[in-house]
Amino acid sequence: MTEGEVNPKAFPLAEATLTQKLLNLVQQASNYQQLRKGANEATKALNRGLAEMIVMAADAEPLEILLHLPLLCEDKNVPYVFVRSKTALGRACGVSRAVVSCAVTADEGSQLKPQITMMHKEIEKLLV
Fold first, then answer.
1. DSSP, residue by residue, 58-121
2. Residue 114 preceded by cis peptide, ω within 30
3. Where would you tag: which of 34, 57, 70, 76 has the fewest CB atoms within 10 A of its CB?
4. Is the pTM of this model over 0.85?
5. How confident is the model over 35-64, as pLDDT tens digits?
């Protein structure tokens, strides 16, 4: 696979405008401490029922390290989506490293609730 190519297993993949919105939401979630970074943390958040949504990087190498997450998400009825770049995801998470996946977590009385709900709808449109 060359740079810019995306693994076909990375479905649903957000297009540029949705990616921008997702990364903004991830950044806000990071500011509100409603973010779990990394595949392991995302898995734990899902298993504990904390995750509101999962964002994964389509350029993770190998992609198989993430492919247990969509299955878990479907079991738990949590929306998930892929963005093209792990570097951009890492930046949005507020760390200097590349991040292959993150979970936006639930928080009672959070200001992010309306944005998270809106994202759920946008992600559902991708799956149709």
1. TT-SSGGGTTHHHHHHHHHT--EEEES-HHHHHHHTT-SS--SEEEEEP-TT-TTHHHHHHHHH
2. no
3. 76
4. yes
5. 999 999 999 999 999 999 999 999 999 999
